[in-house]
Write a structure and sequence with these properties.
Helix content: 40-55%
Order of helices and strands: EHEHEEHEHHEHHEHEHEHHEH
Number of domains: 2
Oligomer: single chain
Structural class: alpha/beta
Largest sheet: 8 strands, parallel, barrel
Mean pLDDT: 93
Low-confidence stretches: none
Number of helices: 12
Strand order of the largest sheet: 1-2-5-6-7-8-9-10
Length: 341
Amino acid sequence: MSVRATGVGSFPGETQRDFEEALAVVLGELGDLPQHRGLVHLPEVPGRGPGAGMLGRTLGLLGVVLDADLQPEGWRLTGTSGAPPLDQRRAASLLAQDLDSFEERTQELTGPVKVQVVGPWTLAATVERPRGDKLLADHGARRELAEGLAEAVRTHVDDVRRRVPGASEVVVQLDEPALPAVLAGAVPTASGFSRHRTVHPPEASEALARVASAIEAAGATPWVHSCAPDVPIALLRGAGVRGVLIDLGLLGADGVDAAAEALEAGTTIGLGVVPTVPGDGLPGDREVVERVLRWIDLVGLDLDAVGRSVVLTPACGLAGLGGAQARRAVTLVAAAARSLG
């Protein structure tokens, strides 16, 4: 078996130096795993400002097709003027700076790399349309957003491949923490007094499939991460997603069955086995390994048979932890992958 390990994305910090330290942790802990079992990823340090988080980064990429600016309530699409607003340009510039550092320190890398962007449904549930309220309220805007994201991701993959020519694989992780709420009709409107209408599975799948297809067309592998309850694993697989990253502690009975079925079918399943709630203590190396083995036994699978499809991760992003805890979380998943391998 060859269990792998990776991180979800975010790290604590407020400066560019904190980003460089996060990158050093990722490369040091995951890059040193044998036989390409460490999936190196581009870290996020959202504490540097709105343009540095997963939403700002993604909107920076979208500047090639859609304009967005920063309002007191958050990010808002402004149209397609061809001249991205200042906040969006700053976000794009910061991402380019991070990618420069990533490129400089991965020239000898021959294993896989991962980058993260926000998926179409979390974007729609978070970003405002020009007339107010979330994009989720506008069917046409949702479609336009998914199409724009597909184009932006293709460009992003090309850029990453150019920067890290030795990478054996490029994985694009679509962050979709809001997807279960979108499907359940649980996303609040701007007033907070009502909820946006439920998005039905066929439409949800169509938008995800559009972006996943663009990722594959660019020669990369589409994954989805959602550290929320009720992750729709079967829907994601049907949309062409090749890997699903989940918080193991939030997986209900239906999710357990869906994850086991996906593993048997060869879909990558990322098990979020290290808790990331601020204030909670972190487990020891042996506890993490035992938790993985117990879960595999619970679902009746043979780790020797499905280990190539198992990726160990922290449960969610690490931005809420202290620096030492964040490093320890990455160390734990790397150590567990090494032990299980």
